[in-house]
Structure formats: C-alpha cells, structure tokens
C-alpha cells in the first residue's frame, strides 16, 4: 500500500508574535506543518529536534541575530533558509545571502507571496536531493565542480561557495559561451518566476570574487550588457576598453 507523503515541515523564527502567527497561519492553510520559535537559541534547539525541511528566519532577533542562526543552521546541514528583513538595503541582502540564505523577503511582505517562495525553494531542494544518478564532473577555466559531492575547486584549491553560488556556477558551467539573462538565471537557479533581479547581480559579484584571478577584470564570467552574463570556458582576458573599465569599476 502506497504511503501518503508527509507534509513539509517549516520552522518560523520571529520575535514578533503577530508576524509569526500570520506566517504560521498561512503556511498551515497551505498544507505545511509549522513550528515556531521567538529567538535564536530556541530556533536552534527546535531545528535539531524536529529537523525542518525549511526555515523562515527573521534577521533581527533577540539574543542571537538571524545571521548567526543561519550560519549555525547551515553548518549543521543543508536546510533551506528564507530570511525576513525589515530593511531593504543591499547590504542586508548580501549578508543574508553570504551566510547561505536561499531567499529573502523584505518586511512588510505579502504572506501569500511568502508561501509561494517557500514552495519554490522546497521544490528546488527536493529536485536536488531526488537526482536519479550522480552528475558528471564539470570542468572549465581551471574550475572543477562535483555536483554529487557539492564540492568545487579552482586550480586544485577548494572553494568556499554558498549553496546558491554553487548552483549558479554549475548552471553557467553547463552552458558555456551562452548569454544568460538575469531572468533566466533567476528562474533556473533560484526557481523564482518573480523577484528582485539584483539578487542575481549580487551573487555574480560574490562568485567572481571567489573564482576570478582579478574580479575587477573578470575572464570567466563576462557581462553581456543589456542581457546578463556569459561563461567563457577558455578564460581569455578581455581587451582593455569601455567594457573592461566598467566591469573594473565594480559593476556587475
């Protein structure tokens, strides 16, 4: 007899009881099993006890902020994290994404949109874990990616990539020489059909900082102006010119 699949379990971490209650209510009505925590230490205790499939995590928490909670969660295992922040500046997004958050939502937010984001992140995570056979190694420009082991090296040295940086680099390596729009990358790598395209820009900038010999003059991930990005498998340095100077100025 076929067993009925268990609903995905989501841990909601927010010290604002109204926000936590609304989020938990919407997730519960969408079919998720929901646990709640109001601070960082309790969130880590619950995560260890119930092993959630995803964590919705507020950035500003008493005792231990959301960034530290996210670091500890990701150190313990590959649980997806969606971070909530009351501030919308890029620096907050960068910090959350750097420590391994899979997505972020800026307060005030639509609970329905958050439920859609939760479903999208979980589908992506399940697709990765349900891969039928190990994918072959990906090699280009001195890079070697092992999709099964989630391990990446550059010239033999291991790279410290976040979950999403790894997925982004993997997608680019599988499509060398092709101009990929930011919208395509957001859909294929993040699984989002909507969202802030600056998320892609931030990740490309961070990824360049880890794989390029000179991130100010990238050889591997090139900007295709007005479109997005292209991975150059041969890693030929671009000639000096307006494009090189613009990329060198820090624009992605």
From TrEMBL:
PANTHER family assigned: DNA-BINDING DUAL TRANSCRIPTIONAL REGULATOR OMPR, REGULATOR OF RPOS
Domain Response regulatory residues, every copy: 9-122
Signal peptide: none
Source taxon at top rank: Bacteria
4-aspartylphosphate, modified sites: 58
Residue ranges of DNA binding: 135-233
Keyword set includes 4Fe-4S: no
InterPro entries hit by this protein: CheY-like_superfamily, OmpR/PhoB-type_DNA-bd, Sig_transdc_resp-reg_C-effctor, Sig_transdc_resp-reg_receiver, WalR-like, WH-like_DNA-bd_sf
Origin organism lineage: Bacteria, Bacillati, Actinomycetota, Actinomycetes, Kitasatosporales
Protein name per UniProt: Response regulator transcription factor
Gene source species: Streptomyces aureoversilis
